[in-house]
Amino acid sequence: MPARMQDKVLLISGSTGIAAATARLAAAEGAGVFVTSQTESHCRALAQEIRAAGGQCDFHAADLTSPASAPQVVERSLARFGRIDALYNVVGVSTRRLGDGPLHACSEQAWDVTMNANLKSMFLLCRAVLRQMLAQPLAQNGLRGAILNMASTLAISPDAKHFDTHAYTTSKAAVVGLSKTMATYYAPHHIRVNAIAPSLVRTALTRRAQSDEELLRYVEQRQPLTGGMLEPEDIARASLFLLSDESRGVTGGLLAVDGGWCVTG
Predict the structure, then answer these.
(1) Which of 69, 108, 179, 226 is the 20 to 30 A CA-CA neighbour of 124?
(2) Using an 8 Å Cβ cutoff, are 167 and 115 in contact?
(3) Residues 168, 185, 186, 218: which is the catalytic one?
């Protein structure tokens, strides 16, 4: 596989699941990877694994919903690698256990926690990284950087029967709108912004679905290309395309990686 990320610096929010799979792949393809999430043990384990495999990776554990955290993450990343060529916002939560559900029954706590984790954290980290990207010179590819934001297939193809979490879906639809607005504004500044929309992926976020036989049969029907849930690596490979120079002319896009979800509903 070609080293699509050779000598690029990738900052990833998240340290498990899709984030970890992307970090491993990017490091294997030549990137310097900086990982941030709230759980220090996950960050450290991932960084150690990547280094043991011969890659470059460092980390800083932080609560990304705190306004003070994003500038610290950017500062630590710059101290380690000197530049940020790409940002991948992966970190996020589902709050069904806190009362997310149909809007008439959705709890305020679930709404607030979801918006903070899935949207505010992205706003704060994008803002801090954009300030750095705008200040840094153009790279050899003629760009200052690329940003990829994590949306969800539910934002464009919702499902009322099994996935009625309105706060989660709303937060992911907002990610799509934010990404397109950013892409429009920052294109003249040579910064690309795209969003990616996975369907059901085998991660900690979908643990409930993985233990529900009826739901698993439903996912097999909705995601026939993969015979059920996608793997984190499926999303990582598509993500690396949008973060690398292979998509140098792509901005404002939304890529659904869904195993067929959107066309089988």
Answers:
(1) 108
(2) yes
(3) 168
pTM, to two decimals: 0.96
DSSP 3-34: -TTTT-EEEEE-SSHHHHHHHHHHHHTT-EEE
- Measured CA to CA, the distance from residue 51 to residue 40 in angstroms comes to 16
> For residue 201, what is the domain's CATH number?
3.40.50.720
| Structural domain includes residue 155 | yes
Within-domain flag for 3: no
- Residue 226 main-chain phi, psi, to 5 deg: -110, 5
Print the domain residue range for 157.
Answer: 9-257
Confirm whether 80 is domain-assigned: yes
Handedness of CA 59, 82, 252, 126 (dihedral sign): positive
Say if CB 155 and CB 197 are below 8 A apart.
Answer: yes
Catalytic residue at 168? Answer: yes
Which pLDDT tens digit goes with each residue over 67-118?
Answer: 999 999 999 999 999 999 999 999 999 999 999 999 999 999 999 999 999 9
Contact 183, 192 (CB under 8 A): yes
Number of residues in the chain? 265
Beta bridge partners of 49: none
Residue 145, Ramachandran bin (φ over 0: left; ψ between -120 and 50: alpha; else beta):
left
Tell the burial category of 230 from Cβ atoms under 10 Å away from its Cβ (0-12, 13-18, 19+). Answer: buried
Task: Specify the 3-state DSSP secondary structure of 149.
Answer: strand
**Using one digit for the tens of pLDDT, what is the confidence trace for 231-260?**
999 999 999 999 999 999 999 999 999 999
Q: How many domains does the chain have?
A: 1
Query: What own/partner pairs with CB < 8 Å and gap ≥ 24 does 94-99 have?
Result: 94/165, 94/168, 94/205, 95/165, 95/167, 95/168, 96/165, 96/168, 96/208
